[in-house]
Amino acid sequence: MNVRPIKTEADYQAALAEIERLFDAAPNTPRGDLLEVLATLVEAYERQHYTIPAPDPIETIKYYMESRGLSRHDIEPYIGSRARVAEVLNRKRPLSLEMIRRLHKGLDIPADVLIQPYVAA
To answer: Which residue numbers delimit the HTH cro/C1-type domain (predicted)?
Structure first.
């Protein structure tokens, strides 16, 4: 394949097809190097043309709870009382700056996700 910048959707699809063909290429081989270059070009094209919206803060908290086996009781130190946790998770109360800080520090939830605007009930 002739390597060149990805400028159109057709170029993008051709690059994806070539990546699929090269997917099993060994690293540090000509095919492996081509795979690496194509992957870099595709990543740059996707970053420019396919934006991914930031996740919803409340859904992110719920995901972190589920993936780590945490209960509502377990996140009380980060949000507040049992009632406050229920209000936040049910979208009746917005996250405060202090809650965001504690969730970020204690659970390692990215602060830039938690500060996103979200729909309240």
So the answer is: 61-114
